[in-house]
Amino acid sequence: MVRDVVVLGATIAGLTAARRLAAEGFAVMVLDPNPEATSAAIGHGVGAVAHASTCANMAGAYGEEAAAEHVRRNLAGLEEIRKVLATAGITPGETRLNDHSLGVALVRELDRVRRIMAGAGAEVEIIDGPSGPGLGSSVLLLDPHEYATALHAQAHQAGARITHDVTVTHIRRLDGVTEITIRRNLAWVRDVEVVSAHAVVDTLGVSPWGALAGAGRAQYVPTLRLEAPSEEVRLHAGPPVWMRRPVAEGTLLLGPKCAPAQLVPAAAALATWAATEFGVEGDREGQLVIDPSDHGRPIVGASAIPGGFYTRGNGRGELMNGTASGCYLAALLLGVDVARNVGLPWASKLRAVATRTLFRRT
């Protein structure tokens, strides 16, 4: 059987795209090398329209329209997150974001970023505080594991077949079809299976087109939990701290992105800052693995190789960028607007319409 879409990686981006495509009636299969929820239950669980530093970096590197498009995709991602939560019966936490990620910035510098974000449809304002002016907006607070579990269940209920603990060994592109050879992650299994699809979405970087879209090595973020309570999310320019957010146990601090060799001193600097700022010592240290990005921009799109789609960098797994990338990939595969030439073939679309109609009747 030739499926319409095979998604490599049950990441946030992969499951989001699979959920939307399966709901439209397409035959979707997700292949993941890890146990259930492992690939998706990552990140800090904060959903925001955008960060000031990201918008400023993207505007400087690619122009204001690219930064505005980033905000528009994030807004679509937030809408998708709310749908998943509503379907699962989960009530998210909502609070304010005090964004000081640009550091000591002038009001006119912040106003440029605010205009970009507001022009894309976001509700954001310039705020003033003891540490100077910043940007204020509303954010969602989620438990990453709870959201990943809900998204996984809804993708499965929509009709996507999700297979965990498998490794992709070969990928071969034929005329109109891509063959993926996989092997189960069991020591005694030697036999391989072959899955065929018209389109392959790579969120793991294991395909030729996914590897070419790579964004460098993964980086690490030190984390520290404190018993001190907090009510808002705050972004800092860092180091030693990048974000602090409220959690059930108190406050979660996240340090800046760093290489593996820099993780230990970064964690020590974060602990020292916490002791000075809050007057208490953290009780649980940890770390997050973060995929790097290109000036803050998630890497996502359609390959020059027919039927090849990808998302790399932080676009594959983190809550906001992963969801935004998954929605964008689904739109590409559906052939929405300017994506008509890279979408799924008409035979797949007609079959999806028939499947969707039959499902609604039953």
What is the helix/strand order?
Answer: EHEEHHEHEEHEEEEHEEEEHEEEHH
Regarding quaternary structure, how should these chains be classified?
A: single chain
Shape: globular
What is the CATH third-level topology name of the domain at 3-42 and 146-214 and 295-360? FAD/NAD(P)-binding domain
Description:
The chain has 362 residues and is of the alpha/beta class. Among the domains are: 3-42 and 146-214 and 295-360, FAD/NAD(P)-binding domain (3-Layer(bba) Sandwich), CATH 3.50.50.60; 217-290. The chain has helices at residues 12-23, 52-62, 64-88, 107-119, 144-158, 208-212, 263-278, 319-334, 346-361; strands spanning 2-8, 28-31, 46-47, 93-99, 125-127, 134-141, 161-163, 166-173, 178-184, 193-202, 219-226, 233-235, 243-247, 250-254, 284-290, 299-302, 308-312. Strands 3, 4, 5, 6, 11, 12, 13, 14 and 15 form a 9-stranded mixed β-sheet that branches. Strand 9 and strand 10 form a beta hairpin. The longest helix has 25 residues, at 64-88. It is globular.
